[in-house]
């Protein structure tokens, strides 16, 4: 459909829908509760991978918002999303939990904040947390497949976009907002957040603040790889706080706004019982939109952000062992042309330019990479053709990437040097409505990703992975070709979908053990033998199946029942050696039964994972498990405000379970959470 002046942007539609429908479940990443009677439900528009603001997308996008997001929120983004089909997490304990998509992690999954780059060091190490507090988010979107190319080669796996209203996209006259307090859980968490929005038809403002405390996480009794028996994950407590201010001016054909934010967290590193991380990220961002710019140009959107990220690893005696710092800037401009009649349909498209600049430094005893600078400039083009039940989308992206080693210990990292790459990506997607609620979708893509600074220049002990890591400055870009097929059915409240995909890497940048060891002196002054892992390009294949469904059942005693399920299977193989790729989850899924009656919602959910026997060399199998959780929620009126009270009971049988996607050196130290009860109240006004 063509963009119109009344549809200011996809983000504006999302903002309006989320504020109008506190119980919306636009995705099937969670369950929705009963909608307040006075609320009007609006159909939101997906933002991620949707520069044309289309309501019928060709590519698979999952969203989480409204009450579903409230009930799914965890301490980290990975924990919040891991029940989604195709989505997992690295699970380095309760504080460091980065999302994975279709078995891919690190720099193959692009982390975005309001569609802009999230500057941090989470892809460098599993113990580095994301600077995101799910408490202040209004919406999370996960994009898989070919449309991710508009965000760069670093989105080969997919994109996770966290959305808030820190830069208001649409007028919200008066004052509205939400406040939430919560406590309990396996980590004895207590905290809360408040979000306020307001203004006039000409100006909008936003303010939010959040604070969270958590103790060491409780787990079923276990014995770790050091022979110690415990019921807690050692050194896993945390304290985080954040705040932001933003404002926008609105005019007849668009808006322009700015925001500033500050995020602090302090948490323990489980693999090192006396080490803590103190992290801070400060970010200033601006964004805007101008519609009806010129004849033939329907809309121009822009955004720019500058971030300063720093985290220090503090030893038990208070000394700072290593300091990581990343200063980054990113800019993005998109211009959409008007719809052009073509045969029996119409053609819409967008051309865009993206620029990213990052300066990274690691100073201290455990610095395994030199100081580096990464520059990335890209042009991309996306065209969409729709005719009756058919939709086709084609895209292309060309990048210029320079990764430079600019300083550090020359005995370890060598002389300063620069590496230049020119990744190119292409994609073609299609969908057709075949009637009776059924639709088919498919996509093919060819993607390239430039090596990161640590894949090129690493040379040192990585304590988090228990390995001596060595980069290779001669690495070529990672190259992948993917195909994705989907069958979907939606009718009378029921929704089912299955996706089958395969990705073949002609050059997969893997970190593999080479059989060597290095002798290092540990903190106790003892000699320690550490395996050597090297980054190198290998041929690889990943394929999988994702099933997701929701089926209304006949009502019982006034309760509306809904059956929900997800099943996820991913297999990865190093085609050069025949060995499985590391840290892949086994077959896993969920089965839930939800009941709604008036203001009440009750949901029982079984989460299960098979035993993972397909493991990489030097790894060990992970036992399967099944855990049961129960959610109870009730909407009620608090004066003139809408309120939601909820209770979440997790792992009711107190089952001991481990995550197969955790790095091997941490898995035995961090079982999944034990039996717990968690409660909270959210008030919207």
Automatic annotation (TrEMBL):
Keywords: Cell outer membrane, Membrane, Receptor, TonB box, Transmembrane, Transmembrane beta strand, Transport. Residues 55-159 form the TonB-dependent receptor plug domain. Residues 223-638 form the TonB-dependent receptor-like beta-barrel domain. The keyword Protease does not apply. Residues 1-34 have a biased composition (Low complexity). It is a multi-pass membrane protein. It is found in: Cell outer membrane. Residues 1-45, 219-241 are annotated as: Disordered. The keyword Transport applies. PANTHER family: TONB-DEPENDENT OUTER MEMBRANE RECEPTOR, TONB-DEPENDENT RECEPTOR NMB0964-RELATED. Belongs to the TonB-dependent receptor family. This is Iron complex outermembrane receptor protein. It comes from Roseateles terrae.
């Amino acid at each position: 459909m063509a963009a119109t002046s009344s549809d200011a942007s996809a983000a504006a539609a999302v903002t309006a829908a989320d504020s109008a429908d506190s119980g919306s479940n636009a995705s099937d990443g969670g369950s929705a509760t009963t909608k307040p009677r006075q609320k009007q439900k609006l159909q939101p528009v997906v933002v991620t991978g949707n520069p044309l603001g289309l309501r019928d997308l060709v590519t698979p996008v999952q969203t989480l918002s409204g009450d579903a997001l409230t009930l799914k929120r965890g301490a980290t983004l990975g924990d919040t999303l891991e029940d989604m089909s195709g989505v997992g997490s690295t699970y380095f304990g309760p504080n460091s939990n980065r999302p994975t998509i279709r078995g891919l992690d690190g720099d193959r999954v692009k982390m975005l904040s309001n569609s802009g780059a999230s500057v941090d060091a989470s892809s460098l190490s599993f113990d580095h947390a994301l600077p995101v507090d799910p408490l202040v988010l209004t919406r999370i979107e996960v994009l898989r497949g070919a449309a991710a190319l508009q965000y760069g080669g670093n989105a080969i796996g997919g994109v996770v976009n966290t959305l808030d209203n820190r830069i208001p996209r649409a007028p919200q006259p008066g004052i509205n907002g939400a406040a939430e307090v919560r406590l309990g859980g396996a980590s004895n968490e207590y905290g809360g957040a408040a979000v306020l929005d307001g203004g006039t038809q000409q100006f909008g403002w936003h303010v939010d603040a959040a604070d969270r405390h958590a103790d060491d996480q409780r787990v079923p009794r276990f014995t770790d790889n050091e022979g110690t028996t415990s019921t807690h994950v050692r050194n896993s407590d945390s304290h985080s706080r954040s705040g932001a201010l933003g404002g926008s001016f609105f005019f007849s054909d668009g808006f322009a706004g700015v925001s500033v934010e500050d995020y602090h967290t302090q948490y323990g590193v489980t693999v090192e019982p006396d080490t803590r991380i103190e992290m801070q990220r400060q970010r200033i961002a601006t964004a805007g939109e101008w519609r009806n710019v010129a004849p033939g140009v329907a809309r121009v959107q822009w955004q720019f952000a500058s971030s300063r990220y720093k985290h220090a690893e503090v030893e038990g005696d208070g000394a700072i062992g290593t300091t990581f710092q990343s200063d980054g800037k990113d800019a993005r401009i998109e211009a959409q042309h008007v719809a052009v009649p073509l045969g029996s349909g119409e053609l819409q498209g967008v051309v865009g330019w993206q620029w990213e600049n990052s300066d990274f430094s690691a100073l201290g005893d455990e610095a395994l990479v030199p100081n580096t600078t990464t520059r990335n400039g890209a042009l991309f083009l996306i065209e969409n053709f729709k005719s009756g039940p058919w939709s086709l989308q084609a895209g292309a992206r060309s990048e210029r990437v320079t990764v430079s080693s600019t300083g550090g210990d020359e005995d370890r990292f060598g002389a300063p040097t620069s590496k230049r790459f020119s990744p190119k990506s292409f994609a073609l997607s299609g969908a057709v409505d075949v009637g009776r609620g059924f639709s088919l979708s498919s996509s093919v893509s060819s993607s390239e990703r430039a090596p990161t600074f640590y894949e090129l220049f690493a040379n040192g002990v990585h304590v988090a992975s228990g390995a001596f890591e060595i980069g290779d400055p001669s690495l070529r870009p990672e190259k992948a070709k993917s195909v994705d097929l989907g069958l979907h059915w939606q009718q009378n409240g029921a929704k089912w979908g299955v996706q089958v995909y395969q990705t073949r890497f002609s050059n997969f940048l893997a970190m593999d053990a080479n059989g060597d060891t290095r002798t290092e002196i540990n903190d106790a002054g003892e000699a320690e033998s550490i395996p050597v892992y090297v980054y190198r390009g290998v041929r690889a294949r990943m394929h999988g199946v994702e099933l997701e469904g929701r089926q209304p059942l006949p009502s019982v005693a006034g309760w509306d029942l809904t059956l929900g399920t997800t099943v996820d299977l991913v297999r990865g193989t190093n085609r050069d050696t025949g060995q499985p790729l590391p840290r892949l989850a086994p077959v896993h899924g969920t089965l839930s039964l939800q009941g709604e009656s008036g203001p009440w919602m009750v949901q029982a959910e079984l989460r299960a994972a098979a035993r993972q026997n397909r493991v990489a060399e030097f790894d060990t199998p992970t036992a399967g498990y099944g855990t049961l959780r129960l959610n109870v929620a009730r909407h009620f009126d608090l004066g003139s405000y809408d309120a939601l009270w909820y209770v979440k009971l997790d792992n009711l049988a107190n089952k001991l379970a481990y995550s197969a996607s955790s790095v091997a050196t941490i898995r035995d130290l961090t079982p999944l959470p034990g039996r717990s009860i968690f409660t909270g109240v959210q008030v919207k006004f």
